Amino acid sequence: MASPGGQGGGGALSTRGGGGARRMKWALELSLGNTRSRGDRQGGQGDVVYPIGYSEKPVPDTSIQETDKNLVEKRCWDVALGPLKQIPMNLFIMYMSGNTISIFPIMMVCMMAWRPIQALMSMSATFKLLESSSQQWLQGLVYLVGNLLGSALAIYKCQSMGLLPTHSSDWLAFIDPPQRMEIMGGGMVL
Amino acid sequence: MAKLILLWLKCVVLWAIVEAVFEDQVGKFDWRQQYVGKVRFSHFDTHVQSSKKVLVATERNVFAALNTRTGELFWRHVDKTGSEGNIDALLQHGQDAVLVVGNGRLLRSWEINVGGLNWEVVLDSGSFQSACLVGQQDMVKHVAVLKKTAISVHYLSNGHQKWIENLPETETVDYQAVYSDGNGEVYVLGVVPHSHIAIVVYSMEDGEIIKQVNMSVEAPWLYNIQASCVVVGQGMLTCVDSAGVSFYMLDLHLQLQMTQVPLQSLALEVDPGFHPVLLSHQPNPARQPLSEFFLQLGPDHYQLLQLNNGQIAAMRDFKPSGFFGKQCYKIILEIQVKIVNLFSAETGRRLLDTTLINLRKFNSVFQLYVQAFLKKDDSVGYRAMVQTEDHTLTFIQQPGRVMWTREEALSDVVTMEMVDLPLTGTQAELEGEFGKKADGLMSMVMKRLSSQLILLQAWIGHLWKLFYDARKPRSQVKNDVTIENLSRDEFNLQKMMVMVTASGKLFGIDSKTGGILWRHYLHNVPPNAAFKLMVQRTTAHFPHPPQCTLLIKDKDTGLGTLHVFNPIFGKKSHVTPPALPQPILQSLMLPLMDQDYAKVLLLVDDQYKVSAFPSTKNVLQQLQEMAASIFFYLVDSSQGRLSGYRLRTDLSTEQIWEVIIPPEVQKIVSVKGKRPNEHVHSQGRVMGDRSVLYKYLNPNLLAVVTESTDLHQERSFIGILLIDGVTGRIIHEAIQRKARGPVHVVHSENWVVYEYWSTKSRRNEFSVIELYEGMELYNSTVFSSLDRPHAPQVLQQSYIFPSSISTMEATLTEKGITSRHLLIGLPSGGILSLPKMFLDPRRPEIVSEQSREENLIPYAPELLIRTEWFINYNQTVSRVRGIYTAPSGLESTCLVVAYGLDIYQTRVYPSKQFDVLKDDYDYMLISSVLFALFFATMISKRLAEVKLLNRAWR
């Protein structure tokens, strides 16, 4: 953005056309300079004159309607089956990370648990994605089942790592000492 | 940017400094005090004028040299306990001190400057009678030792025996004293009781009997020469008869007939019931004794007498006095309540009288050791060491200045307690506000306002003090701990140690510094009394003062007395303890409180009747309500009887169980219950498979240790009996065959650890018993001994310990979360902190996955002593008799006091200091990093803003 001779104090130089009405070799605008240039930046290339034949909106293509439908269907199935496809991978990671409690297995487990939960939380967004599909409900169900399986796997991993408070020892610290019913004292005869 | 660099540089520099600091923690949390015990013999080191030593040989078999300026020990030699190390005689000549040890078994010579042993010889057997230094022509070169049947003379230089002679007619004559005055002869004095005196004179050169006198000197009143006779002047044996009516005199050189001088002729009278004692002084063993001598007529009444040409003349009477003399001057020192007088012994004229400065109160004088010297201006100066009946050593120097006092009673601590210090006045005021019962809204508001006012006042006072002190030079601002400014510290690490000593003197010692804050001497405590100290009210109940009660029981008569006192100030309480007309068997402290928050003490008398102290109406009512759940047990080891009693509502008792252990087979050595202030945090142990093994936490469980009366090494055994104190049910019984005591036992939580001597393998062994309820709790809310259908599981394991032990105790913490250690006092003077983890009957022989999960150490029969486990590093604690542990306000920290001949106080952290920042915690680094980060954030924020602005300009 070379601006030759742009040493003017408050003004800004622009080589771009002002409104496109009058075309000059160069123009110096003093009044609207600041606002223009700022608006320029925020508004992106709004005011830029595009080359001939360029359209900002994509041109709707109506010639390949049939395959497109199939593609959408396929794409939606991809989305729905995504969680299920991750399960073998997760199983492998689980197997590799082992049952010792250290930072990496814990991170793995956290990731494994968090991802399905996140997916379940954003279920509505996924449904919107699947809106265009004809088998929307089936795909949604598959997606849900996949995520549930994923979280079940994570819970199983937690269980096998011993992170779930399922044993009596996990509640040992909360047992209060029993109250004493009798008072007793004494000793050797002094 | 330059600032940033500067900051970074500062950080580096500071970090480097902090890294270099190394703080030695020796003596920071611990202190040791060394004692010698009650003095039996003492000598001033006079062979050099400037010497600062006084030698003491004590009843605790200690021989030591004290610094006369400070009272500290120069050196100390601790001999065996009991009669084997008993010091029979102490003789001093020049740089050598000669000791007869162990009833005449050993003769030792010590070099007194550094305390090194010159020589030691084993004497022939025979019970020791007397010893003296023998001189010839002003040279002292020999020491004579008189035994029951023989007399031997040894060289002072190397201990070699010069000669030994058997005494004649030992079957009839009882030889008791030996005397020499430098003329080359040794006089052995004996007596045929109630008949006559026998004298044998030996030649110093070859031990030949020069002269022997028997039968001729009649003395039917005499049976103990050492108690009633002294040699005075020119070899004149002077005796006073026990009835105290006459003097008897015998010239040892002529040995004619005893001349009798009635005391009445000298106008003297013995105090009724007092056995008169003669005291003489022989300054130089090569010379004759002084012709002046004392006759003690009463406990505090002395009479100076002079022997002049065979005539006794009474010169003057004195209060408790000591004697010192050299050939050129002889002086007498008299001590009255606050006055020290100096007299010339020759004339009885008063030379000097001085008033004692800075002395508390003298208890009655027991012994007095005096040294006098001529000062440069030819006036007489004196130094004196006074032992009073409460075993205090006081050193007095001219002019009546008390140089130091040593509380030797502390060498024999019987029992102790640690009491929390009170809160400061303002803290207490606030506490008191919440502690009191509510009485109306208005008064509560007023109380709150007033307490806030007091706080404000205190704060302003504090500010004023800070301002005032800031102007003073730093050296003047001292913060000594005195009884007035005692207050609890942040973590309750400083406590008051209340110590009860066998002499009947009570002490209050600050646990932080070891300073004695108060002392209180109880008169008329019988010598074999049993003590039991109980804290009835802690400091938590302001404004009620804390209250301790000491039960003193005379073992002969069985009668007991109560001494109620304030443990912080040592003052006797206003509460009048009940008179105890009946012999007392035991006492027990109930967790019940009266309306003044004093715990109720029950005293059981020999009729098995119970009396309560305090016994207000409120208490009696509470007792009636609670009577059905109050039980007590008594153990009579002489009859081998353990019996349990139940309280009835009318305060009579009913025996509910009895266990007899036949005393002819085995005797009960000790009974250990659990400590009442012990908390157990975890109710079970987590197994490897994550199930829980619940502990059997019976608060009424007693561990009874018995030893067999048969001590033959094949047949001797020890027994341990776990018995429920309420029902008398025997929970567990174990017999260790071929084992012998002394058994040391610790009983805590769900385990009992005991140590014994295995006669079969000839080694010390530890054994641990742990009790578990199993995988399920029977009743998790209440524990009642009366409702326990299932017997606990018992696990036991034994280990070899490489040393014998003196005493054992377990650490104790506030909530019981911290792991436990055993504190073991070793005879070598070390205190070992052994993790309980090593004494765990679940230690597996074969390591499995589960045991590894549980962190169990594989079983190894030997317990090793690791040097880093010694909590007292090189501060040897001699003859540890007991270890007392107390919790502090910090869960990680346990306060430990080991007492015996020495007292040692320290802190232990069994699980390391998990709740405290380390001493060398890098506050500087952390805060500088924090600040650096903070500034870095500020700077980068600023930089980011600038950058954003610049971008905006483009």
From TrEMBL, chain A:
<keyword id="KW-0812">Transmembrane</keyword>
<feature type="transmembrane region" description="Helical">
    <location>
        <begin position="137"/>
        <end position="156"/>
    </location>
</feature>
<feature type="region of interest" description="Disordered">
    <location>
        <begin position="1"/>
        <end position="20"/>
    </location>
</feature>
<dbReference type="GO" id="GO:0005789">
    <property type="term" value="C:endoplasmic reticulum membrane"/>
</dbReference>
<feature type="transmembrane region" description="Helical">
    <location>
        <begin position="92"/>
        <end position="117"/>
    </location>
</feature>
<keyword id="KW-0256">Endoplasmic reticulum</keyword>
<dbReference type="Pfam" id="PF06417">
    <property type="entry name" value="EMC4"/>
</dbReference>
<keyword id="KW-0472">Membrane</keyword>
<comment type="subunit">
    <text>Component of the ER membrane protein complex (EMC).</text>
</comment>
<dbReference type="InterPro" id="IPR009445">
    <property type="entry name" value="TMEM85/Emc4"/>
</dbReference>
<protein>
    <recommendedName>
        <fullName>ER membrane protein complex subunit 4</fullName>
    </recommendedName>
</protein>
<keyword id="KW-1133">Transmembrane helix</keyword>
<comment type="similarity">
    <text>Belongs to the EMC4 family.</text>
</comment>
UniProtKB/TrEMBL annotation, chain B:
<keyword id="KW-1015">Disulfide bond</keyword>
<dbReference type="InterPro" id="IPR026895">
    <property type="entry name" value="EMC1"/>
</dbReference>
<dbReference type="Pfam" id="PF07774">
    <property type="entry name" value="EMC1_C"/>
</dbReference>
<feature type="signal peptide">
    <location>
        <begin position="1"/>
        <end position="20"/>
    </location>
</feature>
<dbReference type="InterPro" id="IPR015943">
    <property type="entry name" value="WD40/YVTN_repeat-like_dom_sf"/>
</dbReference>
<keyword id="KW-0812">Transmembrane</keyword>
<keyword id="KW-1133">Transmembrane helix</keyword>
<protein>
    <recommendedName>
        <fullName>ER membrane protein complex subunit 1</fullName>
    </recommendedName>
</protein>
<keyword id="KW-0256">Endoplasmic reticulum</keyword>
<feature type="domain" description="EMC1 first beta-propeller">
    <location>
        <begin position="20"/>
        <end position="408"/>
    </location>
</feature>
<feature type="domain" description="ER membrane protein complex subunit 1 C-terminal">
    <location>
        <begin position="748"/>
        <end position="953"/>
    </location>
</feature>
<keyword id="KW-0325">Glycoprotein</keyword>
<dbReference type="GO" id="GO:0072546">
    <property type="term" value="C:EMC complex"/>
</dbReference>
<keyword id="KW-0732">Signal</keyword>
<dbReference type="GO" id="GO:0034975">
    <property type="term" value="P:protein folding in endoplasmic reticulum"/>
</dbReference>
<comment type="similarity">
    <text>Belongs to the EMC1 family.</text>
</comment>
<dbReference type="InterPro" id="IPR011047">
    <property type="entry name" value="Quinoprotein_ADH-like_sf"/>
</dbReference>
<dbReference type="Pfam" id="PF25293">
    <property type="entry name" value="Beta-prop_EMC1_N"/>
</dbReference>
<keyword id="KW-0472">Membrane</keyword>
<dbReference type="InterPro" id="IPR058545">
    <property type="entry name" value="Beta-prop_EMC1_1st"/>
</dbReference>
<dbReference type="InterPro" id="IPR011678">
    <property type="entry name" value="EMC1_C"/>
</dbReference>
<comment type="subunit">
    <text>Component of the ER membrane protein complex (EMC).</text>
</comment>
